[in-house]
Amino acid sequence: MKTIKGLYYTKDHEWVKVDGNKAMVGITDYAQHALGEIVYVELPEMDEVYKAGDVFCVIESVKAAADSFAPVSGKVVEINEELEDSPEFLNEDPYDNWIMAVEMNNPSELEDLMDDEAYKKFCEKEE
Amino acid sequence: MDNLKKTSLFSSYKKHGGKLVDYAGWSMPVEFSGLTLEHEAVRTAAGLFDVSHMGEIEVKGKEAENYLQYLLTNNIETMHDNQVIYAFMCYENGGVVDDLLVYKYSAEHYLLVVNAANMEKDYKWMLGQKKNYQVEIDNRSEQISEVALQGPKAEAVLQKLTDTDLSKLSSFYLERDVKIAGANCLLSRTGYTGEDGFEIYLNHEDAPLVWDKILETGKADGVIPIGLGARDTLRFEAALPLYGNEISQDISPLEAGLGYFVKFDKGDFIGREALLKQKQEGPARKLIGLEMVERGIPRHGYTVLSEGKDIGFITTGYHSPTLGKNIGFALVQQEYAKLGDIIEIQIRKKTAKAKIVDKRFYTKNYKK
Protein backbone atom coordinates (compact mmCIF):
# COMPACT_ATOMS: atom_id res chain seq x y z
CA MET A 1 0.00 0.00 0.00
CA LYS A 2 1.36 3.32 -1.09
CA THR A 3 1.29 6.53 0.97
CA ILE A 4 2.94 9.88 0.30
CA LYS A 5 4.86 11.98 2.75
CA GLY A 6 3.54 15.46 3.35
CA LEU A 7 -0.13 14.62 2.81
CA TYR A 8 -2.82 14.51 5.50
CA TYR A 9 -5.00 11.39 5.80
CA THR A 10 -8.46 10.59 7.19
CA LYS A 11 -9.83 7.44 8.81
CA ASP A 12 -12.17 7.15 5.83
CA HIS A 13 -9.16 6.90 3.49
CA GLU A 14 -9.15 10.33 1.87
CA TRP A 15 -5.98 12.40 1.50
CA VAL A 16 -5.45 16.15 1.59
CA LYS A 17 -2.63 18.12 0.00
CA VAL A 18 -2.36 21.66 1.29
CA ASP A 19 -1.42 24.54 -0.98
CA GLY A 20 -1.77 27.81 0.93
CA ASN A 21 -5.42 28.05 1.87
CA LYS A 22 -6.39 25.53 -0.78
CA ALA A 23 -6.79 21.81 -0.04
CA MET A 24 -6.67 19.24 -2.82
CA VAL A 25 -8.66 16.14 -1.85
CA GLY A 26 -8.49 12.59 -3.15
CA ILE A 27 -8.79 8.96 -2.08
CA THR A 28 -5.88 6.82 -0.92
CA ASP A 29 -4.31 3.76 -2.46
CA TYR A 30 -5.86 1.70 0.33
CA ALA A 31 -9.31 3.04 -0.65
CA GLN A 32 -8.95 2.35 -4.37
CA HIS A 33 -7.72 -1.13 -3.61
CA ALA A 34 -10.62 -1.87 -1.27
CA LEU A 35 -13.15 -0.55 -3.81
CA GLY A 36 -11.79 -2.60 -6.68
CA GLU A 37 -12.29 -1.49 -10.26
CA ILE A 38 -13.80 2.00 -10.19
CA VAL A 39 -16.40 2.53 -12.90
CA TYR A 40 -18.09 5.79 -11.94
CA VAL A 41 -17.33 8.93 -9.94
CA GLU A 42 -20.09 11.33 -8.97
CA LEU A 43 -18.17 14.57 -8.57
CA PRO A 44 -19.08 17.41 -6.21
CA GLU A 45 -20.36 20.63 -7.74
CA MET A 46 -18.42 23.86 -7.99
CA ASP A 47 -19.11 26.37 -5.21
CA GLU A 48 -20.77 23.78 -3.00
CA VAL A 49 -19.83 24.27 0.65
CA TYR A 50 -19.01 21.20 2.73
CA LYS A 51 -18.39 20.74 6.41
CA ALA A 52 -15.69 18.27 7.42
CA GLY A 53 -17.34 14.83 7.40
CA ASP A 54 -19.97 15.65 4.73
CA VAL A 55 -20.28 13.31 1.77
CA PHE A 56 -18.71 15.21 -1.14
CA CYS A 57 -18.32 12.46 -3.71
CA VAL A 58 -19.61 8.98 -4.48
CA ILE A 59 -17.26 6.46 -5.99
CA GLU A 60 -18.69 3.33 -7.56
CA SER A 61 -17.13 0.01 -8.39
CA VAL A 62 -19.04 -2.65 -10.32
CA LYS A 63 -20.10 -4.05 -6.97
CA ALA A 64 -21.26 -1.03 -5.00
CA ALA A 65 -21.36 2.71 -4.40
CA ALA A 66 -19.15 4.16 -1.64
CA ASP A 67 -19.31 7.64 -0.11
CA SER A 68 -16.26 9.82 0.27
CA PHE A 69 -16.20 12.35 3.10
CA ALA A 70 -14.80 15.88 3.08
CA PRO A 71 -11.65 15.88 5.26
CA VAL A 72 -11.89 19.63 5.89
CA SER A 73 -14.61 22.28 5.66
CA GLY A 74 -14.69 24.69 2.76
CA LYS A 75 -16.02 25.73 -0.62
CA VAL A 76 -15.33 23.70 -3.78
CA VAL A 77 -13.15 25.78 -6.10
CA GLU A 78 -11.97 23.11 -8.53
CA ILE A 79 -13.15 19.69 -9.61
CA ASN A 80 -11.29 17.07 -11.60
CA GLU A 81 -13.69 16.60 -14.51
CA GLU A 82 -11.40 14.08 -16.16
CA LEU A 83 -12.70 11.51 -13.69
CA GLU A 84 -16.17 11.64 -15.25
CA ASP A 85 -14.94 9.92 -18.39
CA SER A 86 -11.96 8.13 -16.88
CA PRO A 87 -12.89 6.96 -13.38
CA GLU A 88 -10.22 4.26 -13.65
CA PHE A 89 -7.58 7.00 -13.09
CA LEU A 90 -8.39 6.66 -9.39
CA ASN A 91 -7.21 3.04 -9.54
CA GLU A 92 -4.18 3.82 -11.63
CA ASP A 93 -2.81 6.67 -9.55
CA PRO A 94 -4.98 7.77 -6.65
CA TYR A 95 -2.49 10.39 -5.43
CA ASP A 96 -1.99 12.09 -8.78
CA ASN A 97 -5.71 12.16 -9.50
CA TRP A 98 -7.27 14.51 -6.98
CA ILE A 99 -11.07 14.80 -6.90
CA MET A 100 -11.70 18.35 -5.77
CA ALA A 101 -10.00 21.39 -4.34
CA VAL A 102 -11.64 23.34 -1.53
CA GLU A 103 -10.90 26.73 -0.10
CA MET A 104 -10.54 25.88 3.58
CA ASN A 105 -12.49 28.00 6.02
CA ASN A 106 -10.97 26.34 9.08
CA PRO A 107 -7.41 25.09 8.39
CA SER A 108 -7.04 24.06 12.05
CA GLU A 109 -9.14 20.99 11.11
CA LEU A 110 -5.98 19.62 9.51
CA GLU A 111 -4.71 18.94 13.01
CA ASP A 112 -7.35 16.22 13.38
CA LEU A 113 -5.94 14.29 10.41
CA MET A 114 -3.09 11.77 10.29
CA ASP A 115 0.32 12.03 8.68
CA ASP A 116 1.57 9.23 6.43
CA GLU A 117 3.21 7.28 9.25
CA ALA A 118 0.14 7.38 11.47
CA TYR A 119 -2.07 6.51 8.51
CA LYS A 120 0.05 3.50 7.59
CA LYS A 121 -0.33 2.19 11.14
CA PHE A 122 -4.06 2.87 11.00
CA CYS A 123 -4.41 0.81 7.81
CA GLU A 124 -2.45 -2.09 9.25
CA LYS A 125 -5.01 -2.28 12.06
CA GLU A 126 -7.87 -2.18 9.52
CA GLU A 127 -6.58 -5.27 7.74
CA MET B 1 -17.35 -12.93 11.45
CA ASP B 2 -16.85 -15.79 13.89
CA ASN B 3 -20.50 -16.72 14.17
CA LEU B 4 -20.83 -17.04 10.41
CA LYS B 5 -21.21 -20.45 8.80
CA LYS B 6 -18.35 -21.71 6.67
CA THR B 7 -18.55 -24.10 3.75
CA SER B 8 -16.25 -27.10 3.37
CA LEU B 9 -14.22 -25.00 0.92
CA PHE B 10 -13.57 -22.13 3.30
CA SER B 11 -9.89 -22.96 3.73
CA SER B 12 -9.46 -23.15 -0.08
CA TYR B 13 -10.36 -19.46 -0.58
CA LYS B 14 -7.22 -18.04 0.99
CA LYS B 15 -4.70 -19.36 -1.49
CA HIS B 16 -6.69 -17.71 -4.28
CA GLY B 17 -6.98 -14.37 -2.50
CA GLY B 18 -10.69 -14.59 -1.70
CA LYS B 19 -12.15 -11.42 -0.15
CA LEU B 20 -14.77 -12.50 2.37
CA VAL B 21 -18.23 -11.07 3.03
CA ASP B 22 -21.22 -12.05 5.12
CA TYR B 23 -23.80 -13.51 2.76
CA ALA B 24 -27.03 -14.94 4.21
CA GLY B 25 -25.20 -15.91 7.40
CA TRP B 26 -22.27 -17.46 5.54
CA SER B 27 -18.71 -16.22 5.28
CA MET B 28 -18.28 -16.37 1.50
CA PRO B 29 -15.83 -14.97 -1.06
CA VAL B 30 -17.22 -11.94 -2.90
CA GLU B 31 -14.18 -11.67 -5.13
CA PHE B 32 -10.92 -13.48 -5.89
CA SER B 33 -8.82 -11.93 -8.67
CA GLY B 34 -11.29 -9.10 -9.37
CA LEU B 35 -14.94 -8.97 -10.33
CA THR B 36 -14.56 -7.92 -13.96
CA LEU B 37 -11.77 -10.39 -14.63
CA GLU B 38 -13.81 -13.21 -13.08
CA HIS B 39 -16.92 -12.20 -15.00
CA GLU B 40 -15.00 -12.27 -18.29
CA ALA B 41 -13.41 -15.63 -17.46
CA VAL B 42 -16.87 -17.21 -17.18
CA ARG B 43 -18.03 -15.62 -20.45
CA THR B 44 -14.93 -16.63 -22.43
CA ALA B 45 -13.39 -19.67 -20.66
CA ALA B 46 -14.88 -21.07 -17.44
CA GLY B 47 -15.06 -20.26 -13.75
CA LEU B 48 -15.50 -22.30 -10.60
CA PHE B 49 -17.97 -21.24 -7.90
CA ASP B 50 -18.44 -22.47 -4.35
CA VAL B 51 -22.20 -22.55 -3.95
CA SER B 52 -22.29 -24.86 -0.94
CA HIS B 53 -24.44 -22.35 0.92
CA MET B 54 -27.39 -23.34 -1.27
CA GLY B 55 -30.02 -25.48 0.44
CA GLU B 56 -31.03 -29.00 -0.63
CA ILE B 57 -34.32 -30.49 0.49
CA GLU B 58 -35.24 -34.02 -0.45
CA VAL B 59 -38.82 -35.13 -1.03
CA LYS B 60 -39.51 -38.85 -1.07
CA GLY B 61 -42.57 -41.05 -0.97
CA LYS B 62 -45.53 -42.44 -2.86
CA GLU B 63 -47.15 -39.05 -3.23
CA ALA B 64 -44.02 -36.99 -3.86
CA GLU B 65 -45.18 -36.03 -7.35
CA ASN B 66 -48.65 -34.95 -6.23
CA TYR B 67 -47.26 -33.04 -3.29
CA LEU B 68 -44.81 -31.07 -5.43
CA GLN B 69 -47.47 -30.50 -8.07
CA TYR B 70 -49.51 -28.78 -5.36
CA LEU B 71 -46.54 -27.00 -3.74
CA LEU B 72 -44.89 -25.56 -6.88
CA THR B 73 -46.00 -23.50 -9.88
CA ASN B 74 -44.31 -25.47 -12.67
CA ASN B 75 -45.59 -28.80 -13.98
CA ILE B 76 -43.93 -31.66 -12.12
CA GLU B 77 -46.06 -34.36 -13.74
CA THR B 78 -44.58 -33.85 -17.21
CA MET B 79 -40.98 -34.10 -16.00
CA HIS B 80 -38.85 -36.98 -17.20
CA ASP B 81 -36.72 -38.93 -14.77
CA ASN B 82 -33.35 -37.17 -14.37
CA GLN B 83 -34.78 -33.90 -15.59
CA VAL B 84 -34.29 -30.60 -13.77
CA ILE B 85 -36.79 -27.74 -13.90
CA TYR B 86 -37.03 -24.23 -12.50
CA ALA B 87 -40.12 -23.46 -10.42
CA PHE B 88 -41.60 -21.14 -7.85
CA MET B 89 -42.97 -22.01 -4.47
CA CYS B 90 -45.69 -19.42 -3.86
CA TYR B 91 -47.90 -18.22 -1.04
CA GLU B 92 -51.67 -18.25 -1.44
CA ASN B 93 -51.52 -14.58 -2.43
CA GLY B 94 -49.12 -15.28 -5.32
CA GLY B 95 -46.06 -13.86 -3.57
CA VAL B 96 -42.97 -16.05 -3.77
CA VAL B 97 -41.68 -18.19 -0.89
CA ASP B 98 -38.65 -19.08 -3.00
CA ASP B 99 -37.48 -19.90 -6.49
CA LEU B 100 -35.78 -23.25 -6.87
CA LEU B 101 -34.62 -26.09 -9.04
CA VAL B 102 -36.45 -29.42 -8.94
CA TYR B 103 -34.30 -32.49 -9.57
CA LYS B 104 -36.37 -35.55 -10.43
CA TYR B 105 -34.82 -38.93 -9.67
CA SER B 106 -38.15 -40.73 -10.01
CA ALA B 107 -41.85 -39.96 -9.44
CA GLU B 108 -41.27 -40.87 -5.79
CA HIS B 109 -37.97 -39.09 -5.23
CA TYR B 110 -36.97 -35.46 -5.82
CA LEU B 111 -34.37 -32.98 -4.66
CA LEU B 112 -35.20 -29.27 -4.39
CA VAL B 113 -32.29 -26.83 -4.52
CA VAL B 114 -33.22 -23.61 -2.76
CA ASN B 115 -31.68 -20.26 -1.84
CA ALA B 116 -29.41 -20.19 1.23
CA ALA B 117 -31.21 -17.21 2.74
CA ASN B 118 -34.59 -18.95 2.41
CA MET B 119 -33.66 -22.50 3.30
CA GLU B 120 -35.10 -22.63 6.80
CA LYS B 121 -38.21 -20.70 5.82
CA ASP B 122 -38.71 -23.04 2.83
CA TYR B 123 -38.32 -26.16 4.92
CA LYS B 124 -40.87 -24.96 7.46
CA TRP B 125 -43.27 -23.95 4.70
CA MET B 126 -42.90 -27.36 3.05
CA LEU B 127 -43.62 -29.15 6.33
CA GLY B 128 -46.65 -26.92 6.82
CA GLN B 129 -48.02 -27.86 3.41
CA LYS B 130 -47.41 -31.58 3.84
CA LYS B 131 -50.90 -32.16 5.26
CA ASN B 132 -52.01 -35.70 4.37
CA TYR B 133 -49.56 -36.23 1.54
CA GLN B 134 -47.55 -39.40 1.99
CA VAL B 135 -44.12 -37.87 1.69
CA GLU B 136 -40.95 -37.57 3.70
CA ILE B 137 -39.29 -34.19 3.65
CA ASP B 138 -35.63 -34.22 4.55
CA ASN B 139 -33.55 -31.06 4.81
CA ARG B 140 -30.12 -32.21 3.63
CA SER B 141 -28.57 -28.74 3.34
CA GLU B 142 -26.05 -29.31 6.11
CA GLN B 143 -24.69 -32.47 4.51
CA ILE B 144 -24.13 -31.36 0.92
CA SER B 145 -21.41 -29.26 -0.69
CA GLU B 146 -21.96 -27.75 -4.12
CA VAL B 147 -19.62 -26.30 -6.70
CA ALA B 148 -20.51 -24.91 -10.13
CA LEU B 149 -18.26 -24.93 -13.17
CA GLN B 150 -19.62 -22.45 -15.70
CA GLY B 151 -18.50 -21.22 -19.08
CA PRO B 152 -17.91 -22.35 -22.68
CA LYS B 153 -14.94 -24.52 -21.63
CA ALA B 154 -16.72 -26.17 -18.69
CA GLU B 155 -17.45 -29.44 -20.51
CA ALA B 156 -13.94 -29.88 -21.91
CA VAL B 157 -12.35 -29.24 -18.51
CA LEU B 158 -14.70 -31.43 -16.50
CA GLN B 159 -14.48 -34.25 -19.05
CA LYS B 160 -10.82 -34.69 -18.13
CA LEU B 161 -11.86 -35.61 -14.60
CA THR B 162 -14.61 -38.13 -15.31
CA ASP B 163 -15.40 -41.24 -17.37
CA THR B 164 -19.03 -40.19 -17.76
CA ASP B 165 -19.63 -38.91 -21.30
CA LEU B 166 -20.62 -35.31 -20.60
CA SER B 167 -21.59 -34.62 -24.21
CA LYS B 168 -24.60 -36.88 -23.57
CA LEU B 169 -25.81 -34.84 -20.60
CA SER B 170 -28.33 -32.32 -21.95
CA SER B 171 -29.09 -28.91 -20.52
CA PHE B 172 -31.41 -29.20 -17.51
CA TYR B 173 -30.72 -32.89 -16.98
CA LEU B 174 -28.91 -34.64 -14.15
CA GLU B 175 -26.86 -37.75 -13.66
CA ARG B 176 -26.33 -39.43 -10.32
CA ASP B 177 -23.25 -41.23 -9.04
CA VAL B 178 -20.89 -39.54 -11.45
CA LYS B 179 -17.26 -39.97 -10.43
CA ILE B 180 -15.35 -36.69 -10.62
CA ALA B 181 -11.71 -36.96 -9.63
CA GLY B 182 -12.78 -40.17 -7.91
CA ALA B 183 -15.49 -38.54 -5.79
CA ASN B 184 -19.11 -39.59 -6.01
CA CYS B 185 -21.21 -36.65 -7.27
CA LEU B 186 -24.66 -35.65 -8.40
CA LEU B 187 -24.07 -33.75 -11.62
CA SER B 188 -26.47 -31.50 -13.51
CA ARG B 189 -26.09 -29.38 -16.61
CA THR B 190 -27.46 -26.26 -14.99
CA GLY B 191 -26.23 -22.93 -13.74
CA TYR B 192 -26.84 -19.30 -12.99
CA THR B 193 -24.61 -17.42 -15.40
CA GLY B 194 -26.17 -17.58 -18.86
CA GLU B 195 -23.38 -19.93 -19.97
CA ASP B 196 -23.20 -23.66 -20.48
CA GLY B 197 -21.98 -25.40 -17.36
CA PHE B 198 -22.45 -27.85 -14.55
CA GLU B 199 -23.50 -27.94 -10.94
CA ILE B 200 -21.84 -30.61 -8.84
CA TYR B 201 -23.24 -31.85 -5.52
CA LEU B 202 -20.98 -33.88 -3.28
CA ASN B 203 -19.96 -34.76 0.27
CA HIS B 204 -18.14 -32.14 2.31
CA GLU B 205 -15.02 -34.27 2.65
CA ASP B 206 -14.67 -34.64 -1.14
CA ALA B 207 -15.29 -30.99 -2.00
CA PRO B 208 -11.78 -29.53 -1.40
CA LEU B 209 -10.12 -32.15 -3.59
CA VAL B 210 -12.63 -31.76 -6.43
CA TRP B 211 -12.30 -27.95 -6.18
CA ASP B 212 -8.50 -28.16 -6.43
CA LYS B 213 -8.57 -30.74 -9.23
CA ILE B 214 -10.91 -28.64 -11.37
CA LEU B 215 -8.75 -25.54 -10.95
CA GLU B 216 -5.57 -27.50 -11.64
CA THR B 217 -6.98 -29.28 -14.69
CA GLY B 218 -8.60 -26.14 -16.04
CA LYS B 219 -5.69 -23.80 -15.46
CA ALA B 220 -4.40 -23.97 -19.03
CA ASP B 221 -7.91 -23.23 -20.29
CA GLY B 222 -8.22 -20.16 -18.06
CA VAL B 223 -10.43 -21.60 -15.30
CA ILE B 224 -10.31 -19.43 -12.16
CA PRO B 225 -12.35 -19.28 -8.94
CA ILE B 226 -15.29 -16.87 -9.02
CA GLY B 227 -16.82 -14.92 -6.13
CA LEU B 228 -20.37 -13.93 -5.36
CA GLY B 229 -19.80 -10.50 -6.95
CA ALA B 230 -19.40 -11.88 -10.45
CA ARG B 231 -22.06 -14.51 -9.77
CA ASP B 232 -24.51 -11.63 -9.43
CA THR B 233 -23.35 -9.63 -12.48
CA LEU B 234 -23.39 -12.80 -14.61
CA ARG B 235 -26.90 -13.85 -13.66
CA PHE B 236 -28.08 -10.25 -14.02
CA GLU B 237 -26.82 -9.85 -17.60
CA ALA B 238 -28.49 -13.14 -18.50
CA ALA B 239 -31.80 -11.83 -17.01
CA LEU B 240 -31.91 -14.58 -14.38
CA PRO B 241 -33.88 -13.39 -11.34
CA LEU B 242 -32.54 -13.14 -7.79
CA TYR B 243 -34.89 -13.74 -4.88
CA GLY B 244 -35.24 -10.53 -2.88
CA ASN B 245 -34.58 -8.43 -6.00
CA GLU B 246 -36.71 -9.43 -9.01
CA ILE B 247 -39.02 -11.75 -7.09
CA SER B 248 -39.98 -11.81 -3.41
CA GLN B 249 -42.92 -12.37 -1.13
CA ASP B 250 -44.16 -9.00 -2.50
CA ILE B 251 -43.31 -9.53 -6.18
CA SER B 252 -45.11 -12.29 -8.03
CA PRO B 253 -43.62 -14.38 -10.86
CA LEU B 254 -46.08 -12.77 -13.28
CA GLU B 255 -44.97 -9.26 -12.38
CA ALA B 256 -41.37 -10.37 -12.88
CA GLY B 257 -42.23 -11.63 -16.39
CA LEU B 258 -41.67 -15.26 -15.38
CA GLY B 259 -45.16 -16.57 -16.16
CA TYR B 260 -43.63 -19.30 -18.28
CA PHE B 261 -42.82 -21.17 -15.06
CA VAL B 262 -46.41 -20.91 -13.78
CA LYS B 263 -48.57 -23.62 -15.38
CA PHE B 264 -52.21 -22.80 -14.82
CA ASP B 265 -53.42 -25.81 -16.83
CA LYS B 266 -51.79 -28.39 -14.55
CA GLY B 267 -54.49 -28.34 -11.89
CA ASP B 268 -54.57 -26.77 -8.45
CA PHE B 269 -51.46 -25.43 -6.73
CA ILE B 270 -50.75 -22.98 -3.94
CA GLY B 271 -51.23 -19.44 -5.21
CA ARG B 272 -53.08 -20.48 -8.37
CA GLU B 273 -56.21 -18.47 -7.68
CA ALA B 274 -54.38 -15.23 -6.90
CA LEU B 275 -51.99 -15.63 -9.83
CA LEU B 276 -54.80 -16.48 -12.25
CA LYS B 277 -56.62 -13.32 -11.21
CA GLN B 278 -53.40 -11.35 -11.81
CA LYS B 279 -53.04 -12.93 -15.21
CA GLN B 280 -56.61 -12.18 -16.23
CA GLU B 281 -56.53 -8.60 -15.01
CA GLY B 282 -52.94 -8.04 -16.08
CA PRO B 283 -50.36 -7.55 -13.33
CA ALA B 284 -50.28 -4.00 -11.91
CA ARG B 285 -46.49 -3.86 -12.18
CA LYS B 286 -43.99 -5.07 -14.73
CA LEU B 287 -40.28 -5.80 -14.65
CA ILE B 288 -38.45 -3.76 -17.30
CA GLY B 289 -34.90 -3.48 -18.52
CA LEU B 290 -33.32 -0.04 -18.63
CA GLU B 291 -30.19 1.56 -19.95
CA MET B 292 -28.90 4.83 -18.53
CA VAL B 293 -28.90 7.72 -20.99
CA GLU B 294 -27.37 10.14 -18.51
CA ARG B 295 -24.51 9.52 -16.08
CA GLY B 296 -25.04 7.27 -13.09
CA ILE B 297 -25.35 3.63 -12.13
CA PRO B 298 -28.82 2.37 -11.19
CA ARG B 299 -28.65 0.36 -7.96
CA HIS B 300 -31.02 -1.97 -6.11
CA GLY B 301 -33.69 0.05 -4.31
CA TYR B 302 -33.37 3.35 -6.20
CA THR B 303 -36.67 5.07 -7.03
CA VAL B 304 -37.83 5.21 -10.66
CA LEU B 305 -39.77 8.25 -11.86
CA SER B 306 -41.73 9.29 -14.92
CA GLU B 307 -42.01 13.05 -15.31
CA GLY B 308 -41.33 13.42 -11.62
CA LYS B 309 -43.90 10.83 -10.50
CA ASP B 310 -42.78 7.78 -8.50
CA ILE B 311 -43.55 4.73 -10.69
CA GLY B 312 -41.40 2.01 -9.11
CA PHE B 313 -37.90 0.94 -8.10
CA ILE B 314 -34.68 -0.62 -9.35
CA THR B 315 -34.46 -4.35 -8.54
CA THR B 316 -30.87 -4.84 -9.76
CA GLY B 317 -28.47 -2.49 -11.54
CA TYR B 318 -24.83 -2.49 -12.53
CA HIS B 319 -22.14 -1.13 -14.71
CA SER B 320 -22.26 -4.22 -16.94
CA PRO B 321 -18.84 -5.87 -17.29
CA THR B 322 -19.68 -7.49 -20.65
CA LEU B 323 -21.48 -4.54 -22.23
CA GLY B 324 -19.67 -1.67 -20.53
CA LYS B 325 -23.01 0.13 -20.05
CA ASN B 326 -24.97 1.18 -16.98
CA ILE B 327 -28.04 -1.02 -17.04
CA GLY B 328 -30.67 -2.33 -14.68
CA PHE B 329 -34.02 -3.96 -14.04
CA ALA B 330 -36.87 -2.04 -12.47
CA LEU B 331 -40.32 -2.99 -11.29
CA VAL B 332 -42.66 -0.24 -12.51
CA GLN B 333 -46.37 0.37 -12.86
CA GLN B 334 -47.58 -1.46 -15.96
CA GLU B 335 -48.75 1.68 -17.80
CA TYR B 336 -45.21 3.10 -17.74
CA ALA B 337 -43.50 -0.04 -19.01
CA LYS B 338 -43.31 0.90 -22.70
CA LEU B 339 -40.15 -0.09 -24.58
CA GLY B 340 -38.23 2.94 -25.75
CA ASP B 341 -39.78 5.37 -23.25
CA ILE B 342 -37.57 7.65 -21.19
CA ILE B 343 -37.78 7.41 -17.40
CA GLU B 344 -35.71 8.92 -14.62
CA ILE B 345 -33.77 7.24 -11.86
CA GLN B 346 -33.33 8.99 -8.53
CA ILE B 347 -29.61 8.66 -7.82
CA ARG B 348 -28.97 10.24 -4.45
CA LYS B 349 -29.90 13.95 -4.80
CA LYS B 350 -30.18 14.01 -8.59
CA THR B 351 -32.27 12.31 -11.21
CA ALA B 352 -30.73 10.81 -14.33
CA LYS B 353 -32.54 9.76 -17.52
CA ALA B 354 -32.74 6.16 -18.64
CA LYS B 355 -34.38 4.38 -21.58
CA ILE B 356 -36.60 1.32 -21.26
CA VAL B 357 -35.01 -1.53 -23.22
CA ASP B 358 -35.35 -5.28 -23.69
CA LYS B 359 -34.22 -6.93 -20.46
CA ARG B 360 -32.32 -9.73 -22.12
CA PHE B 361 -29.02 -7.88 -22.01
CA TYR B 362 -27.01 -10.97 -22.78
CA THR B 363 -28.13 -13.90 -24.93
CA LYS B 364 -27.83 -17.15 -23.05
CA ASN B 365 -25.27 -19.48 -24.38
CA TYR B 366 -26.63 -22.89 -23.38
CA LYS B 367 -25.90 -26.21 -24.98
CA LYS B 368 -28.98 -28.04 -26.22
Short note summarizing the structure:
By secondary structure, chain A is an alpha+beta fold. Helices cover 20% and strands 35% of the residues of chain A.
Model description:
The complex is a heterodimer of chains A (127) and B (368). Chain A is α+β, with helices and mostly antiparallel strands and 127 residues long. Chain A has a single domain, classed as OB fold (Dihydrolipoamide Acetyltransferase, E2P), CATH 2.40.50.100. Chain A has four helices and nine strands, in the order βββαβββββααβα. Chain A has helices at residues 29-35, 82-85, 89-92, 116-126, and strands spanning 8-9, 14-19, 22-27, 38-42, 49-50, 55-61, 65-69, 74-79, 100-104. A six-stranded antiparallel sheet of chain A has the order 1-2-3-9-8-5. In chain A, strand 1 (8-9) and strand 2 (14-19) form a beta hairpin. The radius of gyration of chain A is 13 Å and the shape is globular. With 368 residues, chain B is of the alpha+beta class. Among the domains of chain B are: 10-54 and 143-237, Probable tRNA modification gtpase trme, domain 1 (Gyrase A, domain 2, 2-Layer Sandwich); 284-368, Elongation Factor Tu (Ef-tu), domain 3 (Beta Barrel). Helices cover 19% and strands 34% of the residues of chain B. Chain B is built from eight helices and 19 strands. A six-stranded mixed sheet of chain B has the order 10-11-12-9-3-13, sandwiched between helices. Chain B has a six-stranded antiparallel β-barrel with strand order 14-17-16-15-18-19. In chain B, helix 2 crosses helix 7. Chain B is globular. At the A-B interface, strand 4 and strand 6 of A face helix 2 of B.
